[in-house]
């Protein structure tokens, strides 16, 4: 056998081995779950998407975010969510400033994005479509295709039953309900909306005799909304009757020890229970939002109260590192990580500390921010957003010892995920001419830039100091913070594609169809 023939033989052997190995690693979902497609004792499902996971339309019925044929939003400026109201901004006792009217409303779960219709199917990007198809194809669930009506303030008004949806008496316990929402708004508001949604679908789709319970499947930030509702459903019920409670400070609210009657279990997909440094990156320079300019994102994201509630829950000294040859910065980080001075939940020297943002000239405190005469008011808006986020994360932390057995965590753990940033003071030789940050520390996140800075300073770069295993957005370790779930499973998949992974699909279907149903059925 000559060398060429031998090379071809080994190549074919590698391809065959790879095929066999890959086929063995994909669970045969259709075969596994066929015996459970007709079992009656299952629960209907509520799907809660994450941030950016709901389509948004303006009052002209134009897609502002999402849509079947969109490449970019029709008018990204419509996503700004603030009104400069001096009375609300100056009121220190509540968060009424976030109770804002908007021409933009949630219209659907963002299931699929077709970039260019002329390119055909190859241009389709699955968002949540694969999650729905998994439930329908392998679990025999039926899409209820419900419609939600919101008012201009983001409050849920009514839920409509789609007459074309094939929901009847025999399959209503396999219905999939979609809780889409305005993901720019406060997560506490949307937790109250979730409670209203559950009441509405029970009334619309089920009779008083139905003792129905729901399994929640929540992705990313949607999991935080579900956690807040489960942990504070008594408060959500009170706020449903008295909406003025939503924007008051509820720092002293105590969590419920019991589960809501309508909830059976909650499955979290890639939920940032400890926050995500990626969202701070977006605040810092506008990174991380597809198809949109960084300058646009940088100016829009501070107007969204939900974004603050995704910030990492850490002291500044934990969030950032400093070069060894910069003792002043190292000493600053050491002081801000002193447990006697810093607690991630009390604002002092934490990521929620307004004084740190002002000192570091982050976001609207930067000289590079758009100069429109509203600078001071936008800075006060940021202070409000940070205070609200501190309260929200503190309240979630208080639920860590209650209702944990009802939560199942699914996530990713093999993508290099941003964990910390480099707090860096550039030397004069490195600064660009006319830089506005010449005498200020700046933050660096990108691996290529980190390597360049370390090389310039004759230091060794260790990527593990800045990047940890995760799903590209949420590090594995941070997904477990403030939550001790009943079980957790991880797979090698990215944040937006967790519901495409066959192993996680298997775990998801097992939790929904088998785990609480007794003995496994034999295959026919």
Description:
With 524 residues, the chain is α/β, with parallel strands linked by helices. The chain has 17 helices and 19 strands. It has a domain at 41-277 and 400-412 and 475-513: Alpha/Beta hydrolase fold, catalytic domain (Rossmann fold, 3-Layer(aba) Sandwich), CATH 3.40.50.1820.
Summarize the structure.
This protein has helices at 3-25, 29-33, 86-90, 129-139, 187-205, 221-231, 233-241, 277-285, 294-300, 305-308, 316-319, 327-336, 354-360, 375-398, 447-456, 476-479, 502-513; strands spanning 45-48, 54-57, 63-65, 105-109, 112-114, 124-126, 142-143, 147-150, 156-160, 175-178, 214-219, 263-269, 320-321, 407-412, 415-418, 421-424, 442-444, 467-470, 487-491.
Topology:
Layout: H1 3-25, H2 29-33, E1 45-48, E2 54-57, E3 63-65, H3 86-90, E4 105-109, E5 112-114, E6 124-126, H4 129-139, E7 142-143, E8 147-150, E9 156-160, E10 175-178, H5 187-205, E11 214-219, H6 221-231, H7 233-241, E12 263-269, H8 277-285, H9 294-300, H10 305-308, H11 316-319, E13 320-321, H12 327-336, H13 354-360, H14 375-398, E14 407-412, E15 415-418, E16 421-424, E17 442-444, H15 447-456, E18 467-470, H16 476-479, E19 487-491, H17 502-513
Parallel strand pairs: 1-10, 1-11, 7-10, 11-12, 12-14, 13-16, 14-19
Antiparallel strand pairs: 2-3, 2-4, 5-6, 8-9, 15-18, 16-17
């Amino acid at each position: 056998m000559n060398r060429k023939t031998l090379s071809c033989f080994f190549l074919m052997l590698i391809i065959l081995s790879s095929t066999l190995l890959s086929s063995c690693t994909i669970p045969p979902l259709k075969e596994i779950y066929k015996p459970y497609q007709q079992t009656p004792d299952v629960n209907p499902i509520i799907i809660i998407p994450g941030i950016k996971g709901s389509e948004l339309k303006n009052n002209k019925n134009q897609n502002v975010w999402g849509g079947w044929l969109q490449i970019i939003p029709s008018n990204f400026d419509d996503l700004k969510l603030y009104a400069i109201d001096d009375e609300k901004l100056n009121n220190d006792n509540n968060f009424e400033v976030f109770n804002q009217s908007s021409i933009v409303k949630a219209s659907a779960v963002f299931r699929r994005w077709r970039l260019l219709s002329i390119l055909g199917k190859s241009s389709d990007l699955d968002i949540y479509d694969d999650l729905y198809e998994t439930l329908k194809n392998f679990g025999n669930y039926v899409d209820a295709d419900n419609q939600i009506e919101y008012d201009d303030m983001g409050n849920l008004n009514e839920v409509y039953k789609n007459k074309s949806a094939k929901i009847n008496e025999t399959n209503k316990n396999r219905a999939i309900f979609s809780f889409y929402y305005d993901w720019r708004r406060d997560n506490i508001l949307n937790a109250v909306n979730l409670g209203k949604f559950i009441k509405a679908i029970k009334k619309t789709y089920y009779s008083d005799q139905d003792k129905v319970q729901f399994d929640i499947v929540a992705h990313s930030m949607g999991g935080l909304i579900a956690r807040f509702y489960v942990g504070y459903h008594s408060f959500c019920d009170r706020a449903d009757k008295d909406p003025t409670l939503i924007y008051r400070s509820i720092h002293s609210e105590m969590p419920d020890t019991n589960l809501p009657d309508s909830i059976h279990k909650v499955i979290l997909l890639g939920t940032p229970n400890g926050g995500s440094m990626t969202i701070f990156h977006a605040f810092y320079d506008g990174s991380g939002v597809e198809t949109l300019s960084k300058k646009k994102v940088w100016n829009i994201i501070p107007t969204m109260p939900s974004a603050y509630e995704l910030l990492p829950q850490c002291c500044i000294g934990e969030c950032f590192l400093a070069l060894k040859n910069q003792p002043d910065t190292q000493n600053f980080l050491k002081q801000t990580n002193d447990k006697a001075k810093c607690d991630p939940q009390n604002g002092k020297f934490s990521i929620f500390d307004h004084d740190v943002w002002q000192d570091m000239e982050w976001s609207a405190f930067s000289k590079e921010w758009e100069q429109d005469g509203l600078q001071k008011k936008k800075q006060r808006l940021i202070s409000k957003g940070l205070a609200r986020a501190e309260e929200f994360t503190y309240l979630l932390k208080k639920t860590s010892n209650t209702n944990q057995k009802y939560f199942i965590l699914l996530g990713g753990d093999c993508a290099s995920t941003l964990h910390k940033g480099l707090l860096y003071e550039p030397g004069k030789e490195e600064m660009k001419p006319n830089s506005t940050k010449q005498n200020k520390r700046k933050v660096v996140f990108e691996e290529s830039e980190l390597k360049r800075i370390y090389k310039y300073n004759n230091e060794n770069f260790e990527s593990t100091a800045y990047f940890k295993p995760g799903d590209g957005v949420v590090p594995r370790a941070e997904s477990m913070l403030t939550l001790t779930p009943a079980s957790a499973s991880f797979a090698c998949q990215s944040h937006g594609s967790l519901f495409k992974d066959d192993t996680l699909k298997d775990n998801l279907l097992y939790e929904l169809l088998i785990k609480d149903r007794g003995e496994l059925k034999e295959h026919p």
